[in-house]
Amino acid sequence: STSNYLSYATATGLDNPFYNSATKKFDFSYYLSSTKQSAPDFVLFYLGANDGYRSIAILNYGEMIESIKAYNKTSPKQVKIFIMHEYLAPRAGYSVSYSFDSAVRRDEQFDYFDKLTNAFGGREDEGIYLIPAHTCIDADGDRVKTDGKVTDVIHLSRAGYRKQADIVSAYIYAIFSVK
Predict the structure, then answer these.
(1) pTM of the prediction?
(2) Of 90, 103, 117, 132, which has the fewest CB atoms closer than 10 Å, so is most exposed?
(3) What b/e readout covers 37-48, taking b as 16+ CB neighbours within 10 angstroms?
(4) How far apart, in whole angstroms, are the C-alpha atoms of residue 88 and residue 134?
(5) What is the pLDDT of residues 123-164, one digit of tens each?
């Protein structure tokens, strides 16, 4: 989740290489120096669903973006920032074991998409790109299925992830191609 990357040294049993224990927060420059990585051309964020489509994800993205922008101020290489919209819940809900109304959840998701767009849309001149990868996903048809029945309601099928990859590839090509 954005909260895990922003605020914790470890989460779900994994070390967070972006967490700077001296500052106690996400630190892009720290990550590059501590891992001896060169600056990438872009960073792609795709984490909001793990925050439950809440506004905290947008605030957290903002803090992480500020860390990358701080790095960009001191570097000749300008790292672009991509934020992907998450895909929608299936119309019939995730499964019978989930205790929420899928129509309400989808309304929450649309509200979150609006907030995400208001926060990060139209900021291409800052090197921030909002990628609407959710628009290519069939919320019901692009799920993992066995014998025609959805068996993984959280993750997309291979075909669904390929659709998202096509959208990201189009953005990368458009942004980084030589004109």
Answers:
(1) 0.84
(2) 103
(3) eebeebbbbebb
(4) 7
(5) 999 999 999 877 777 777 787 877 777 777 677 888 888 988
